[in-house]
């Protein structure tokens, strides 16, 4: 036992040393009640303030991460402009160190269990890494060939396989509506891939208990951005983008959810600065990860009746258009279905999701996947699902909440699927 403790302590020290330190970074919760002041506040995004909520609505609490160099200037700006704020996380690094220790302990335990019993198992006590995700999917494909097929949708910039699974009990014979889901385009949003994986787990390993879900066929890419996701585990917990090289810049990566071709580069909510977290890329569809999703959407577009993209965080069910404050022609049905889903989650779990147009509820952002799916393939039900975050800790949802949160959104997915099966 003593050797195991010493080993974990040494491994934790090495892991912490390899990570970007967020020592001295703070998280403030800000409230703004004036539209002009809100616009002024967002100008700090290019100066290094990381908007975790980035809400467009006035009067809502908004968490922002402040780097050490701005811990005096930014609060002074807030005071000078009479914007209320409070200190939520005094030192972000302490939160991330706690998460790394939990991850290391639980992952080691899961690896030991798999070495004893190598068949496909789903341990949702910790956040999986890309290799673990792909290993699990391939095991499912081997053990349940009549339910799931596993294919390579593409390869990431750094060469990792992006796997897509197709799940059906009738072999995709064209008789049922299809639901397409992707997750993890934003690397730091760890609960998104886990929610997609839990759905796959329930559909395949617990198919007998989920027969209602098989009124639809399923296409799921659980980890769209494996390079960025791995980087958040190894180096920088708050990394958001892909890991591609931007010619002429030392800053890497593109925001994949600004890189889709529909209204690419339009309006606000984007940046042409390669160092920005919302950098749209040099051209639309420049990212291999985005291309993988685009190709799989095109392959099954004729039968897809619902598109979902999993993100975090915020408890939102968002629908087009996102490029500007413009309502989709199918706005009434989009809102109706999202409200049905939100009510199902609330009634079963007490969690209140909010439904609405993404540009109006949050902020305009062009080049997003839900807009692309709706515009390019006329998918009438297209949503970005902003999953639950970690309370005041934001993206850092504690691992012991994975089962709860993935279970809650499974209820929502069931409500989506019930509507699709009954209406298409």
Automatic annotation (TrEMBL):
The entry sums up its family as follows: Belongs to the peptidase M14 family.
Q: What is its main location?
A: secreted
Any single Gene Ontology cellular-component annotation = extracellular space
The molecule here is called Putative carboxypeptidase b
Cofactor list: Zn(2+)
Asked whether the UniProt record includes Zinc among its keywords, one would answer: yes
Q: What is the species listed in this Swiss-Prot or TrEMBL entry?
A: Lutzomyia longipalpis
* Residues making up the signal peptide according to the UniProt record: 1-17
Q: Which GO terms describe its molecular function?
A: metallocarboxypeptidase activity; zinc ion binding
Tell me the superkingdom of the source. Answer: Eukaryota
- Family matches, as Pfam families: Peptidase_M14, Propep_M14
User: Where is this protein localized, as stated in its record?
Assistant: Secreted
Q: Which GO terms describe its biological process?
A: proteolysis
Q: Which residues form the active site?
A: 386 (proton donor/acceptor)
Domain Peptidase M14, by residue range, is 125-420
Q: Which UniProt keywords apply?
A: Carboxypeptidase, Disulfide bond, Hydrolase, Metal-binding, Metalloprotease, Protease, Secreted, Signal, Zinc
Job description of the protein: Involved in the digestion of the blood meal.
């Amino acid at each position: 036992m003593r050797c195991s403790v010493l080993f974990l302590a040494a491994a934790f020290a090495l892991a912490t040393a390899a990570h970007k330190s967020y020592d001295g970074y703070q998280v403030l919760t800000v409230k703004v009640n004036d539209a002009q002041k809100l616009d002024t506040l967002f100008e700090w995004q290019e100066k290094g303030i990381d908007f975790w909520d980035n809400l467009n609505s006035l009067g809502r609490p908004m968490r922002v991460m402040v780097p050490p160099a701005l811990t005096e200037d930014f609060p002074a700006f807030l005071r000078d402009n009479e914007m209320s704020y409070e200190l939520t996380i005094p030192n972000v690094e302490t939160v991330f160190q706690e998460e790394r220790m939990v991850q290391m302990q639980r992952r080691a335990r899961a690896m030991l269990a798999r070495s004893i019993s190598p068949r496909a198992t789903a341990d949702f006590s910790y956040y999986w890494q890309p290799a673990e995700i792909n290993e699990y999917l391939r095991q499912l494909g081997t053990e349940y060939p009549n339910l799931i097929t596993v294919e390579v949708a593409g390869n990431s910039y750094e060469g990792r396989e992006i796997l897509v699974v197709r799940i059906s009990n009738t072999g995709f014979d064209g008789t049922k509506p299809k639901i397409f889901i992707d997750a993890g385009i934003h690397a730091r949003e760890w609960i998104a891939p886990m929610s997609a994986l839990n759905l796959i787990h329930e559909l395949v390993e617990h198919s007998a208990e989920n027969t209602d879900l098989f009124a639809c066929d399923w296409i799921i890419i659980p980890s769209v951005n494996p390079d960025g996701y791995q980087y958040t585990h190894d180096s920088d917990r708050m990394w958001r983008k892909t890991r591609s090289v931007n010619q002429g810049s030392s800053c890497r990566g593109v925001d994949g959810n600004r890189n889709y071709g529909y209204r690419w580069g339009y309006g606000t909510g984007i940046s042409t600065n390669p160092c920005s977290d919302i950098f749209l890329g040099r051209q639309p569809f420049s990212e291999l990860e985005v291309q993988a999703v685009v190709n799989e959407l095109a392959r099954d577009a004729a039968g897809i009746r619902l598109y979902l993209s999993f993100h975090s965080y915020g408890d939102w069910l968002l629908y087009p258009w996102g490029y500007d404050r413009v309502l989709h022609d199918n706005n009434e049905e989009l809102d109706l279905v999202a409200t049905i889903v939100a009510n199902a989650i609330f009634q079963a779990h007490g969690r209140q999701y909010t439904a609405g147009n993404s540009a109006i509820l949050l902020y305009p952002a062009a080049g997003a996947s839900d807009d692309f799916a709706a515009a390019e393939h006329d998918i009438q039900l297209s949503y970005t699902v902003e999953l639950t975050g970690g309370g005041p800790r934001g993206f850092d949802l504690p691992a012991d909440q994975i089962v709860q949160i993935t279970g809650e959104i499974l209820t929502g997915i069931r409500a989506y699927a019930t509507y699709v099966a009954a209406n298409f």
